[in-house]
């Protein structure tokens, strides 16, 4: 979370047993004002939930270990560079090296945009309006989150189309900004349909969604 959020973090894992379970566990980040309520909700359901840290301003990672003392303190950017080094080494072999170097060097000065969306009363838009805007959700082997993104766009009133690189390469969708997914030549991409009770995500223009 600190690496992706470009911020520092202070961790207290002195109760290290909280980090090791045979059952499935997760690390959850919530607003400080909601932390006690979230922990209480888990506890009420018989699920162990302990606070292990908090984000902090500045380029610093500090970890309190089982001894109760600070056992690691380092700049977040230094640790992130070490974490990312293997990925960048692989990227140098399969991408434009100049682009890889540019991305790697930019991480030291990267800052997250202050984006916040407040939706007071969201209304799901499962029934599309006539002339609803269309959006193509690009999916390829190894990609993640395409269904979640399609669901989010559908809730916002978009007609979503499942698009793969094969669609683009074969000419099913012209690779131009002016192209509309619905006007593509055959074969057409898959139009995403929202899930209904009792069935998984489905696609409406082909027999079954591609995976």
Which features does this protein show?
Class_I_gatase-like; Dimethylargininase; 8 strands; extended; PurM-like_C_sf; alpha/beta; four-stranded mixed sheet
Architecture blueprint of SSEs:
Layout: H1 2-5, E1 8-12, H2 35-44, E2 53-56, E3 61-64, E4 70-74, H3 76-94, H4 97-106, E5 134-139, H5 146-155, E6 159-164, H6 165-170, E7 190-193, E8 202-203
Parallel strand pairs: 1-3, 5-6
Antiparallel strand pairs: 1-2, 3-4, 6-7, 7-8
Give an overview of the whole structure:
The protein is of the alpha/beta class and 211 residues long. The chain is built from six helices and eight strands. The chain has helices spanning 2-5, 35-44, 76-94, 97-106, 146-155, 165-170; strands at 8-12, 53-56, 61-64, 70-74, 134-139, 159-164, 190-193, 202-203. The strands form two sheets. A four-stranded mixed β-sheet has the order 2-1-3-4. It has a four-stranded mixed β-sheet with strand order 5-6-7-8. β7 and β8 form a beta hairpin. The longest helix is centred in the middle third of the chain and has 19 residues, at 76-94. The model is unreliable at 175-187 and 196-211 (pLDDT under 50). Residues 174-196 have a biased composition (Low complexity).
Biggest sheet, open or closed, and with what strands and sense? 4 strands, mixed
**What's the helix-strand series?**
HEHEEEHHEHEHEE
Side by side, the strands of the main sheet go 2-1-3-4
Q: Using DSSP, what is the number of strands? A: 8
- How widely separated are the two ends? 29 Å
Hey, roughly how much beta strand do the residues contain?
A: 15-25%
Mean pLDDT across residues: 77
Low-confidence runs of at least 5 consecutive residues: 175-187, 196-211
- Shape descriptor: extended
Work out the helix count.
6
* Proportion of helical residues: 25-40%
C-alpha Rg, in Å? 23 Å
Protein name: Dimethylargininase
Region (Disordered): 174-211
Biased composition (Low complexity): 174-196
Pfam family, one: GATase_5
